[in-house]
Design brief:
With 136 residues, this protein is mainly beta. The chain has one domain. 6% of the residues lie in helices and 40% in strands. The chain has one helix and eight strands. A five-stranded antiparallel sheet has the order 6-5-4-7-8, covered by helices on one side. Strand 5 and strand 6 form a beta hairpin. The longest helix has 8 residues. It is globular, with a radius of gyration of 15 Å. It starts with 12 loop residues before the first helix and ends with a strand.
């Protein structure tokens, strides 16, 4: 089923290009060592602009919480509802919590505290988005 297709800009292009290669990268500030997501022009902690770089992360994490979307306003997602939206804390980028879908998990049956791993779904030719699945 169709999902929104990301439109990268100057700041987010390295993130989306990595996703297209099945890699998860996070922006990291080399000045204060903080990871941030989504990508921004400046570090949200120290304000540095010149010290931001993208660093590949493992894509492993833990489900922190979730909600069930019953009434989404984005038309392309309406046929998918209801669906889970989970917040995932990344193991090797502890400052980052990603919001994502959890395919393969029944609505409202999200195992909070479970370990997850990133997977990439192609939403258009050559364009992928990250989402997570529960690992045993």
């Amino acid at each position: 089923m169709a999902k929104p297709i990301p439109v990268p800009d100057e700041v987010t292009k390295p993130f989306w290009d990595a996703c297209d290669q099945d890699k998860l990268v996070m922006q990291q500030c080399t000045n204060c060592n903080r990871f941030q997501f989504p990508p921004e022009k400046t570090c949200s902690q120290c304000g540095s602009e010149a010290n931001l770089q993208f660093k590949q992360v493992s894509g492993k994490g833990t489900i922190y919480s979730y909600i069930v979307m019953h009434d989404v306003r984005i038309r392309v997602l309406q046929p998918l509802q209801p669906f889970n939206i989970v917040s995932v804390k990344l193991d090797d980028a502890p400052d980052v919590v990603m919001l994502t879908q959890l395919p393969g998990t029944d609505v409202d049956k999200v195992p909070v505290g479970a370990k997850v791993e990133v997977e990439f779904e192609e939403v258009a030719p050559g364009r992928k988005i990250p989402q997570f699945h529960v690992v045993s």
